[in-house]
Specification:
Blueprint lengths: L1 H8 L18 H10 L6 E4 L9 H20 L3 E4 L1
Parallel strand pairs: 1-2
Length: 84
């Protein structure tokens, strides 16, 4: 909601924004790369949250989502902005 409100405050038209949901942060990179390769978008803003628990799973998910978004931008040629 906050990102959408900010876009509206800067006069970005609602019809120029697509919101895409993924099952979890781990999948953000794959979806960002797919969207980037479509050549439909000028940029992709990847937003998510990872909640730290009692296991090391948190570190693995954060590392995977970070490298996934980086790879998506490099492989697609579309800027992918990391906001996890």
């Amino acid at each position: 909601e906050g990102a959408l409100d900010t876009f509206k405050n800067y006069s970005v038209r609602e019809e120029d924004i697509d919101v895409v949901w993924v099952p979890g942060c781990f999948e953000i990179g794959v979806v960002a790369q797919h969207l980037g390769k479509s050549q439909k978008y000028e940029a992709i803003l990847c937003i998510g949250a990872v909640i730290r628990g009692d296991t090391s799973h948190y570190d693995a998910v954060v590392d995977a989502s970070t490298s996934g978004v980086l790879s998506a931008g490099l492989n697609s040629g579309t800027p992918c902005i990391f906001g996890v």
